[in-house]
Specification:
With 453 residues, this protein is an alpha+beta fold. The chain has a domain of 166 residues.
Amino acid sequence: MSLSVGLQNLTNISNNYGYLTKKDAKSASSNVLYDSKPANVYYKPINFCSSLTPSEKQKYDYLLNYMQGYKISQTSGNKTVQAQLETLLKSGKLLEKSANDKSSILDNLYEIATTKRVYDLDSKNLISNTLDIILNPAIITQNFGDIPHNDKVKILQHLDNNSPVKKDPSLMDISASGTCVAASNEVNLADKYPAEFSRWVNKLSSTDKGFTSRIKVDSISRNPLEALMIFNLLKADMSNFNFNTVDIKVKPDENAYIRAKNQDKNWDLGERNVADVLVQSAIMQLGSQGTYDSLTDIRGGELTDNPQGLIEVEKTFVESVIKNKEIESFVNQQIDDNKRLVGYNSSFEKLKNDIINVLDSGDDLIVGYVLTNESAGITESKYYNKETDGDKNLIINGHEITVVGYRKDENGNTVFSCIDTDDDNPNIVEYSAQWLIPKINHVGMPVHVKKSA
């Protein structure tokens, strides 16, 4: 299903994908082959790069001195930021000028270190956050973290009297966020487009509070007029539209900086760091037609009446803009008007092979899966009680994860390596294809890969 077809069928697929409750996650995992793996097991090696230009050497040496003695904040071990930089230099990733604006990780880290950050966000913290995430995208989380009471008082003093938070301060207390689509896109950015990820962190934390990306129009639709309609429907902040390219403004909502400042000084292990806050907020803003509020994790917009998360069409739009390539959203499940899973649009074997083809092409896949009241599809949960839960296959929840690799187990069965931003696990996990495939509602397929398969 193309983005345009998805928009035409909006009413049929307008479930928001936000989060699983911890109870649901535990129930789901009862039939899952679940194993933690270090994220870098699945990275393809890049040619070693030992030479630096004079400009690159100046920037590299500056960062080494600037970050002297700074400890890694999130990953295990006792490595220094200097060791992280060396790892990226040896892999070749540090110098690749592959961001949308042709900048490298080194360029963006240097700019973070040498230019003013908005609201005096800590540059060293941002550099550490960026390196941590690039080297282990599995640490990305959608856990907001708490705001201390005294800080809440200060926030309320500066809010407009019409703010819903002013009337109900408890709206700031986010126990389960709806940013799984944004967090999954963040995973893909950091894992496969690390230079672009570093640009996002740099520009979103700068005094400009955002940046512009030049996007190929055919990444949205091969029909320029249809692409224009989609940009307008999604209320993209665009300029310089022509038949080939368009400039898209990417920025978080203003309240994202309240969250970022809080995490800058009050961050605890397992919570979103400052980079997570800014990137996820910008993605939510881009997908929700500019209606997202980071303080409450609530969005508006005309495409859905669900106040949390992003719907499938919005997810596909955001992913297409981020990757700058056409993403075809394939909806696998047939769901009736009573929100019951009644069938599939593809055989499980074909969908499995399509996912493997994309992974073999070198990209990740962001998939939306659902749980039913007996935990979905062909794998019935031992917790299912028909007398209590009613008829089978009633959709009760949805979630978005990123598939980053696969392997064959000892019996020849496919096992997918995934990053789940809501499982409180800073590692890659594994889900058997037998468990995952029946639960997949939609998956974003790069069109060029699907055509060549």
